[in-house]
Amino acid sequence: MTIELKQVSEYIWEIPKSGEMLVPGRIYADAGLIKHLVDDVNKGKEWNALAQIRNVACLPGIQKASLAMADVHPGYGFAIGAIGAFDAETGVISVAGVGFDCNCGVRTLKTQLTRDDIKGKEQELANELYRVIPAGIGSEGKIKLSLSQIDEVLVKGARYAVEHGFGWQEDLTFMEEEGCVKGADPQTVSHEAKERGFQQVGTLGSGNHYLEVQYVSEIFDEKAAQVYGIFPGQVLVSIHCGSRALGHQIGTDYLKTLESASRKYNIPIRERELVCAPFKSEEGQRYFKAINCGINAAFANRQVLGHLTRKAFASALGTGEKTIRTLYDIGHNTAKLEKHKVDGKEKDLIVHRKGATRAFGPGRPEVPAAYRGIGQPVLVGGTMGTASYILHGTEKGMEEVFGTAVHGAGRISSREAAKKRWRGKDIIAELKKDGIIIAGHSLSAVAEEAPGAYKDVTQVVDVVHNAGIAKKVAMSKPLISIKG
Questions:
Q1: Which residues contact 418 (CB under 8 A, 6 or more apart)?
Q2: Whether pTM exceeds 0.90
Q3: Where do the structural domains in the chain lie, given as residue ranges?
Q4: pLDDT tens-place string over residues 17-55
Q5: Which residue among the candidates 164, 248, 340, 407 is catalytic per the annotation?
Q6: Domain 6-483 belongs in CATH node 3.40.50.150
Q7: Active-site residue, 407 included
Q8: CA distance 65 to 28
């Protein structure tokens, strides 16, 4: 396999349009990050990100380019860290462009505490968070729903959680879509998906999901930090999770539906998971409505977990629950109907972000009024041994990449390879020496998430910062990490 790759600028690389490609592929990276991708091709790995970026460029209705961020790595169909924006009239919608954990995302809470305020109390706080936050495979949530009530969650999203005592109206103000996307239809979600999900609202899950207590270690943009309410040494909490088993079942169900649709509408498919349907078709609309249900389920999930976190802090530290506020909540596995300019004209696009974070710039009405002058917060998770970042969206990002940025560090080792190379016990012991407490429900899950299994998050973030598509506001470092 050979894939031509050209460097366009210091931080942009292109796969030129050729063959059946309708647009070029475009990757935001530096030379070191590109080398990982090229090495996969040179080693003959069929499952590689560059081939997936090229495949997406062949799908009907794609706009501008098949895009990828600096954290890109192979996924199912779409690479993880990829963006595909399709004309709403002529384009397609794809399961692979969303992934199996619909609206996996990050919620960051800001406290009035400093690192010094919790010094010596970290273990007590870790124990309480471990006790209060349901995590791990098969965990069940604090909200006990009937199968009929799950339909309400799928329509109302985080609003359902607030109505049932988990948080406040202000939380919704500082969530993407105010915690609820329109156009969700529970009838498009299978009974099996609902059955798998109705007991999991308010659960962290496993894999790369986490709840992390952090402190702000560096401020890069004082003005933006002030607007966001962030200061040096401040204790933050980041929660990374999604729609759990319900979202996974939606993806599984619609793979079959869209596989049939691909044949019905004569859409050539280059990888099984890349099956898709015209967005305006009956199948495409059903899947879109189901995605919106999954998005809302994930918003409700993070809303409940955010409020349980407040209660854990109150119990362990005597902190007033109302002093812990939502900085922002944003997804990074979504397909959203949005307006963007293409060739100077505003168009309705169905924007797939697969392991990529919406990063809207200043002035967009979707950004909370309090942040609109700066742009939307972009929450970038690192690893439990390194750092996380808060960025803000930019006008350049709106113009070049449909208002999108990185979502994390990006894997360089598969989960299986990580488990063979690292032991969970050793990682916990090593990080403890650095003052980081890991409270994991599974040692093998800790091994899968070894810091060495990921790219350097600072290198990844510096690419989008230096390219100008999102700008650094603050860096935070971990103190406590609760793992599934």
A1: 447, 448, 449, 450, 452, 453
A2: yes
A3: 6-483
A4: 999 999 999 999 999 999 999 988 888 888 899 999 999
A5: 407
A6: no
A7: yes
A8: 12
